[in-house]
Request: fold
Amino acid sequence: MNGRCTGEMRAKLSFDICYRFFLLIGLLMVGASLPCKNLQASSKENNGNSNSNAYLPIESFSGGLLSILDGQRRFSCSAGSFAGADSQTSKRGRKSINPDHAITIQLPACMKDAGEDAVIDFLKTFLPVGKSGFQHPNDIAISIDVTGSQFGDKALEFVANFFPNTTHLSLGNCKNITDQGLLQLVKLRSLKRLVLFGGSQVTGSSFASLPDSVTELILAYTSVVDQNLLNLRHLNRLRVLDLSNNKKISGESLEQLALDLSKLEWLDLSSTSLTDPAKLSGYRKLIKLDLSDNDLVVSHLDQLSPTLRDVGLSYVPIDDQVLGQLLEHLPRLEALDISRNLKITGVTLNQAPLTLKRVNLAETSAASEFIGQLRDSRPSLDIREPEKEIE
Reply:
């Protein structure tokens, strides 16, 4: 019994030491990311002002850090408890962010299993300090990665209130995020990249709250419902959309969104329930499209945008004839994945545009003799050929 208790105490002590160490590292990163020149400038501008919001040197963070290390929860999750920094705004009313000021906050591996409150405490160490107390950074671009942690709706509200300049937010495999929590994202008006893959509670019912600044949205392995994709209609800057491994996506809503998402360049619909690729014909700026592992109406593949340069058709029931028609339709094609299809021999690859650089023929019926001829005619073409059977 005593041996077991001692082991548990050692494990707890190791975690506590690791936790405190990474809090200190995060603190030092913040101090290093704030240029001294700007600190001095801010101090001069705010000289004599008792409500100054100038960033303070690294020593000013020690009080907040020690409070956490001592286990004293002196912080409030209410935005009103922190001093609000006056930020500059553009003509459109958005907060201006100095691109030279940027920090990346990544949750250390030893905190992946820590509770949500511990995650929030870790994030607090990155908050600047003014004479009125802790406050959110008002001109620093923030990138936050808490992938695979216990980060939930409470932590998301904290980020929305105190890190409003967050531009990249990675919440992959954060199972505690819900549609209700995502409503807080409306406050992140500078958000560009949002990663929600593995969010099993995310259905998309609150996607209308996403800021229209979002350009990349990763929704793989979520519970997004096809109809809820219509809530993305306002994201007219969206360039990257990953909906892979969502069996409730049929493409019906995407067909209606073509005009709204007119800037979309990268679309992943692999392992969904899409059947008719003609539903994507309205996306005329697509560069990369992955339709792998779908039971497609292959005769409609030639209705895809001719702007495509990278196409994934692995485990799709196409044959050489359909492939030839598709290749004639894609004059800019650079990469093609037609693996895992025994109907493909590759004979129509001779019709591929000269722009083609890579082709995946793994697990197809392409003969070694044909591949050799193809390599002779196109020496710069990178070919992944079927593995030879061991006799």
In short: The two ends are 58 Å apart (CA to CA). The chain has nine helices and 14 strands. Confidence is low (pLDDT under 50) at residues 30-95.
